[in-house]
Amino acid sequence: MKLYFADTIFSPIFRRYFFYFDSYPLVIQIAIILTTIAITATIIAYGSILYRRYSGWKRDRRLAKLNPRIDDLITDTVILNEELALGTPPEKIELDLSGFARLKYRDMFVRQALIDRIMHYRKNFVGDLGYLLRQLYIDLDLEKDSVKKLKSPQWNKKVQGLVELTALDMQISDVNILPLTNSKNRELRAEARHAYIKLSKNEPFKFFDIATEPLLMWDQIELFKIITTNKDIVLPNFARWVTYSNNKSIVSFCLKLIIHYNQTEAIPAVIKLLDNRDHYLRADAIQCLGKLKVEEAEDKLVSIYNNQPLNCQIEILKALGRIGSGRHLEFLKSEFIRSQDFDIRKNAARSIIKHGALSQNMLGDLMSVSSEENQLILKHCMNPLIKY
To answer: Is residue 90 within 8 Å of 132, Cβ to Cβ?
Structure first.
């Protein structure tokens, strides 16, 4: 039996280097072909690695010569600008670009190096110097390079463009950035959302309306940091997304923002969320009500307690402790005594203790009648050094 594929593709090659290749058994022919493919693939892989390393070495070597020249020009043009030192408003200063012309800044490699160095300095300077660095970026037409990256079909180029435009506080039209906030690529999606919140002046949370991809935990942490540190951000009523959004991660994130900004006007929407089918969202809603100390929600929380999974029950116990009205101390005592679950007893005990003076007599009674294990739980929860 002949290996026809080998005959048509590989036989001419092997006849030249291997005599009587056609006379070899089929197994030997296959082994020779696979060995040749493996060797060729290995050579290509090593060649690619060597080429990348050589390219990186050349790039680093070129940057080692170029960056000091760029730094000197930025220092002379912006940081040590004489007009700025004399008190001239930065918006009236015309920057001298003659030194940059000698850099041959029309070369794409040089332009990228300029962008990177301007971004580096922009991270360290604010106020008038920050304004002049941004103006230098604009005067050198570097903005066009970043916008061009934003339109690239490659996701990593898009991310690079977003990072550059965001770092220099350049405006990006909604048409260009909004579709990226819902990209299938996680890194591009996250960077676009960060950029949109940071750069949008009117509706920084508009992408919440169209988001179908989830907000992962790390994305939520990064977004929370950007939102809470941006003093000029326009805050909406986050109850809007708690009520209408079908994206569970958006709802969960909005609940965290409601807590942080103490949006008491969102309380009715949060209470309605207690009827949601998703028990993770219910747990987040219960946590939100507890941290906002919503007394009117206590009766509802106690009434639904027995029908909830463990995570929601624990959040209800915590919420009753955070609210601390004292109206449901007997309920907490009952759960502490009768429950066989350690987490239930621990959180019930902690919530009783958080009532302070209202629960002093109850704590004394519990210590006298509880089992040895429950006494240990109470003593553990009384330790002020232990945080929950």
So the answer is: yes
Contact 200, 236 (CB under 8 A): no
Classify the phi-psi angles of 344: left when phi > 0, otherwise alpha if psi is within -120 to 50, otherwise beta.
Answer: alpha
Contacts of residue 296, defined as CB under 8 A and 6 or more positions apart, other chains included, come to: none
Question: In the chain, what are the domain boundaries?
Answer: 1-140
Sign of CA dihedral 247, 249, 250, 256: positive
Q: Which residues of 18-48 are buried (b: 16+ CB within 10 A; e: fewer)?
A: eeebeebeeeebeebbeeeeeeeeeeeeeee
Q: How many residues does the chain have?
A: 388
Question: CA–CA separation, 107 vs 323, rounded Å?
Answer: 64
**pLDDT (tens digit, 9 = 90+) per residue, 259-317?**
999 999 999 999 999 999 999 999 999 999 999 999 999 999 999 999 999 999 999 99
Tell me how far apart the alpha carbons of residues 291 and 147 are, in angstroms, rounded to a whole number.
43
Question: Helix 127-139 crosses helix 108-124 at what angle (to 10 degrees)?
Answer: 170
Query: Distance between CA 327 and CA 330 in Å, rounded?
Result: 8
Encode pLDDT of 173-195 as tens digits. Answer: 888 888 888 888 888 988 888 88
